Amino acid sequence: MASVALRILHTADWHLGHALHGVDRGPEHERFVAWLLDTAQAEAVDAVVVAGDVFDAANPPAGAQALWYRFLAEAWRRLPRLQLVVVGGNHDSASRLDAVDPLLREMGRLHVVGGVPRGGAGAPELERLLVPLEDASGRRAAWVAAVPYLRAADLGAGAADADAAEATRRFYAAALEGARARRAPGEALLATGHLYAVGGKTSDLSERRLAVGNQAAVPADAFPADLAYVALGHLHLAQAVGGRETVRYSGSVLPLSFGERGYRHGVVVADLEGEAVRAQRVLRVPRFVELVSVPDAEAPAPLPEVLAALEALPARGDGPDALRPLLEVKVRLERPEPALRALLDQALAGKEARLVRIATTLAGTGRALGDGERRALGELVPEEVFRRKYDADYGGPPPDALLEAFRALLQEVESEEGAR
C-alpha cells in the first residue's frame, strides 16, 4: 500500500470558563477558538485532537458551554473534511462531554470521549475508544486510541496506591491491542492521554494536584514504540516526554496563572506518512491579553519601587476593556499599610493595566499579609484554601505528608464528581 499523508493538530487544556482572580477569560477563549478554526483551515489540517480539560470545571458557566458548542458547529460547517477527536480531562465532567455524543454521531467526523465507555454490565468497552482517521482523499490513514483521563474506577483494584502507573500501562496495552487488530499495513497508530508523565515540568498552581508525590506518574515507556504520535494533556508547559519528540504535551492555550505568563503557548502540527511522523512543528497561539507582574521577579519589592514601576506603565489605550493587560503587584512592606490600595490605584490612574491581585509581605517576617482584596471562595483552588487555613491556625506551611494526604483525598472526591 502506498504511503498516506495525514496532518493532525494537537491541542489541550483549554479550560473554558476559567477566571483569573475573578476576571472571566471568555473574551480570550473566544479569540482562541476563532484563531484555531482559521489555523486548521489555513494549514489544511485533516484532524484536530483535543487532549482533555476542555472546561475548567465539571460544572462550567453557561457561556463556556455555549462557546464549546459553537466551536463544534463551526468546525463541522466551515471545514467539511475536518475530523475532530476530543477526550475528557480531570477538570471535565465525563457525562457532560459525552451527553452530546448522539448528535455528533449523526453529524459525523466529530468524536468526543468524555470518559471510558462502559457496557450494560459496567465493563469497559475499549473498542469504543478507537477512532479511524482519513486523509484528504478519504482513505483511512490512522487509528487513534482516544483515551481520556483515567479515574480510579477505570484502573481497577489497587489504582489508588503506588501501582496506578502500572494499571495505566495495562489499560493502554489493552486499548492498543484492539487498534493493532484493526489497522492495515501503512496506517499509523496514535493515542491520547490526560495524565502526569514521569519527568514532566509543572507550574506552581495551575497544574493543580497533579499526583500524590508523583506516585501516579506514568513513565514514557508506557507508550509503545509503534505509536507514531501520543497527544497528551494535563501539564500546561509544552514539552516532549522522556526524550521522545513524538510523545508530547501541547500545553495550555493561554496562561492560567501569573506563574505561566512566560510560557510560549501553542499547538502542535504533526505530519504523518505511513506509520510514522515525518515532521512536526509548533504554532504559537497569540497572546490576546498580557499578564504583567510588578516587580517582574518572583520576590516582592518595597512600596516606593512598586509605585514608581506602576507610574511607568503604558497609558490607557483605545482598545476594549476585556483585552487590557491583567496586573499583579507584589509589595514588601515595612509595616502594615492601611492605605495601600488607594496608593496603588493612584499610581495606576490612566494606565492600561487592570489590577487583579495584590500580594503583600511584611519585611523581616516573610509572612504574607494577604492578597489585598476579598476573593470569593470559588476563585481559590482547594489546596490554596487548605494552605491558607493551616497557615492561619499554625503559623506556617503544612507538612509534606499532610499535603499528600489532602491531595489524595481531594483527588478521590474529584474523580467521583467527574465520573457523574
Structure in words:
The chain is α/β, with parallel strands linked by helices and 420 residues long. It folds into two domains: 5-284, Metallo-dependent phosphatases (Purple Acid Phosphatase, chain A, domain 2, 4-Layer Sandwich); 292-417, no CATH class. It is 28% helix and 24% strand. The protein is built from ten helices and 19 strands. It has helices spanning 26-42, 62-78, 94-98, 101-107, 152-155, 164-182, 303-311, 340-347, 382-394, 400-418, and strands at residues 5-11, 19-20, 23-24, 47-51, 83-87, 110-113, 130-134, 140-145, 188-194, 229-233, 239-241, 244-249, 266-273, 276-284, 291-294, 301-302, 326-333, 354-362, 368-370. The strands form four sheets. The chain has a six-stranded mixed beta sheet. It has a six-stranded mixed beta sheet with strand order 7-8-9-10-12-11, with helices on one face. Strands 15, 16, 17, 18 and 19 form a five-stranded mixed beta sheet that branches. Strand 4 (47-51), helix 2 and strand 5 form a beta-alpha-beta unit. The longest helix is centred in the middle third of the chain and has 19 residues, at 164-182. The radius of gyration is 23 Å and the shape is globular. Residues 211-215 and 372-376 have low confidence and may be disordered.
